[in-house]
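[worker-b] picked up task from shared queue
[worker-b] task type: protein-ligand structure
[worker-b] ligand name resolved to zinc ion; SMILES cross-checked against name lookup, match
[worker-b] sequence length check passed
[worker-b] input payload:
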Amino acid sequence: VLNRRAFLKDLTGVAVGLGAGVAASGSALAAGASRFPQSAGAAGRRQVLVGGHRVRTIDIHAHCSFPEAMALMDRKPAPNDPLIFGAERLRQMDEHGIDITALSINPYWYSAEREVARDVIALQNEKMAELCAAHPDRLVGLASVALQFPDLAAEQLEDGVKKRGLRGAHLGGHVNGEELASPRFDPFWAKAEELGVPVTIHPSNIPELAKRLEGSGYLTNIIALPLDTTIMLSHLIFEGTLDRFPALKICASHGGGFLGSYIARSDRTCLAFPENCKQPPKKHPSEYLKQLYFDSIVFTPEALRHLVAESGASQILLGTDYPFPWTVDAVDHILATHTLSNPEQEAILGGNAAKLLRIGSPAH
Ligand SMILES: [Zn+2]
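[worker-b] inference finished, payload out:
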């Protein structure tokens, strides 16, 4: 079995079993479960191997929604919306070799009044906890918080983590145009740091740029979203948020947007233009990349190699952006990045996320 596994790994980096239990014993492959390991088929979960060893994969960037909570703000999902969790999603996880998904919900409640925001978040975090409890070996959840009310958001995070077993918080890239670096949000950052839980941040669009971004090419997505993340992270660096809360575990979407690609310019600014840098951050901006976390959604091995060079492999987490079809080969992207060592690939595929999200070792 080991030889056959090694052989399959050599060919493709992947192998397929008939589900975790069977594959764990090795009998699925011994029985020749599939001669075409790239396609899992309906029956089994793709088993991801690194260096011949099965590794557990964890997706940090995966969307979902709960219609019951949306209804409190008079919102309705589309019929058959893939954001609503169902059996098809587990099937897709199996097919793409995703063992565990960390679910999150992009904020639509930042404009809500306090009472409404309280109700939406309470119901949503309850539904998230229920769903994760129904699939404890496949799902973990990130808490929603009403960040427009930072004190309430801090309470919601603590409640979500301590009472509902959620693993961290998920934020938008700004709150109605207000930067996350605003000192107004410090009570929330303080709570996240105190709890030691990760905060994932997904970009929102940039309404101020709507005119420039109209036309062909979906620039409101491909430019605005990475730019929103770049602006958000730059302010967290230059406004001192990361100095005030040095133990924060922030994970930015889409590989941190454009920040890692051009960080040397950020390093230069306070040296070249001190008058524009009244309170310089304690460290060079590029050094903060080594404490931030980023998902792996940068598409090519070369882009991932560069992000790892700037931040370290310990800071990168596998991301799929499910159900949006930006990636269909998130696992293969990591496996195809040959500049990474086996331990680095394993860390990015799931080891880093397991630590961050406090996911224990699977039972054997
Ligand atoms: Zn996304």
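[worker-b] attaching auto-annotations
[worker-b] The pocket of zinc ion is lined by residues 61, 63, 202, 253, 321 (CB under 6 Å).
[worker-b] releasing lock
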